[in-house]
Amino acid sequence: MCRWIAYSGSPIRLEELLYRPRYSLIDQSLHSRLGVETTNGDGFGVGWYTGNGGDEPALYRGTGPAWNDANLREIARSTQSPLFLAHIRASTGTAVQQTNCHPFRYANWLWVHNGSIREFHRLKRDLVLAVDPDLYPFMAGSTDSEVMFHLALTYGLRDRPVAAVERMAGLVESVGRAYGVPDPLQMTVATTDGDRTWCFRYSSEGRSRSLFYSTEISALRHLYPEQANLRGLSEETRLIVSEPLGELEGAWQPVPESSYGVIQKGDDELGRFEPAMP
């Protein structure tokens, strides 16, 4: 499968999360502890915002392993952002090519996914035909993840993100049942418009891939006053990760099964995720 992180908060250099933690995303590309595969070397990507609301995010993706990309290291060392998504890929059968690397981008939106649509090669035609014809030309790759993104856009991601992703999941499960595919959907997803970030953890079988969110910064400062890296972060700072980046006790909370979360200014949200037929 894959590993990903979503960051929102005080502007930081990308390297602070991609390279510096003990279990950084780059470390996870070689030594994932909770993933289906230990090594995630089938491409990578990072999408980041400059802080100007509504702007199209920058995107850098590569087909090689993340741990061996000198340009990614240079970008991470020199780029600051208040909101970014990063992803390392382990292919579930589609080609290793740049257009199949996450994040996927449409206008000011980004999307990353860990998981799969089971027997996607059988379900693909029906799912792609459900994509809005105006969105179809923007699909450049061949992955189930990109089809899921464009289905969510079709069902209203830009206006009602949670409902749109529930409708996407409902369609995948409906098509899967029609083809006799058991438990067709496995997903953890993060998507953002550059202002708010939504995450989803769901699987048809009820045993979803791992996903965690960071404890509130104020609570972490109280627990670990000696941690200098916590002092400059705002109370709004949050992280969503496929697996924890470190071992500080109390720093990471599991996202519940079949749920969604919203990172936003003010109070964040956590709710029940329920697929719905479109």
From TrEMBL:
User: Glutamine amidotransferase type-2 domain: from which residue to which, for each copy?
Assistant: 2-244
Identify the EC number(s): 2.4.2.-
Q: Which InterPro entries match?
A: EgtC-like (IPR026869), Gamma-glu_amide_hydrolase (IPR052373), GATase_2_dom (IPR017932), Ntn_hydrolases_N (IPR029055)
Question: Which keywords does this chain's UniProt record carry?
Answer: Glutamine amidotransferase, Glycosyltransferase, Transferase
Q: Which PROSITE patterns match?
A: GATASE_TYPE_2 (PS51278)
One GO MF term on file is: glycosyltransferase activity
Q: Which residues cross the membrane?
A: none
Name by which UniProt lists this protein: Class II glutamine amidotransferase
Q: Source species, please?
A: Actinoplanes subglobosus
